[in-house]
Amino acid sequence: MGDGTIVGVAVLKKSLDAFAADLSPFDRAYFFVDSDGVVALTNRPAMMFRTLWPLSAERRSMLERQLGPLIARPVLEREVTGATWINLDGESDYVLRRYADHSRWSLVILNPIREIYASRSMGIIITLLLAVMTLIYLFGKERSVHDNVQMEKRLKLQELARGLRFQATTDPLTGLYNRLEFDQALAKELIRSARYKTPLSLVLYDIDQFKAVNDSHGHQVGDKVC
């Protein structure tokens, strides 16, 4: 009403059967609890209506009037508000609490330490494998770059050697082979003639009185005449 008077109350109830069916595949222990930590739904039947953490004597007394006698000893030493490590029945466990939207209910899930270590070990193994694969790739890449550089250097050296040999065995004016190449070619032909017992002929020619052309007209003119 406009003056704030309550004229009625509507209660909406929702079955937890569907929610329990969704959580049934979980192999980890889970607890659906109210704000006091009283277990209302779990895959551990012995934990039903048991408190997960300590309550004040007054609050416990009120709950027992509503739900009946509660087990005196709570499961945990303190209330869980997020994610933390706990000691449960002498074993270390990792506990995670998540609140349901717009309600005071929450879901508490236990993750045994052995599973965490197993997942961490698997993560470490995968990380190491990725690191090894990366190192192999980088090593192969570096080797490929090194081989390409060496090949390029060898090609440049071969090209330089061919250029030097050409300069050393040819006349820069006429482009004909010089005395060095002539001596090497003559030695090869002499060996060939002796091996196959074939005759070998050598023809030499000279231009008489060519020195007069150089003396009269200069060496550049003589080079053109040649």
Question: How would you describe this structure to a colleague?
Answer:
By secondary structure, the chain is α+β, with helices and mostly antiparallel strands. Among the domains are: 97 residues, Beta-Lactamase, CATH 3.30.450; 52 residues, no CATH class. The chain contains six helices and five strands, in the order αββαβββαααα. The chain has a five-stranded antiparallel beta sheet with strand order 2-1-5-4-3. Strand 4 and strand 5 form a beta hairpin. The longest helix is centred in the middle third of the chain and has 57 residues. It is rod-shaped. The N and C termini lie far apart (127 Å). The model has no long low-confidence stretch (mean pLDDT 76).
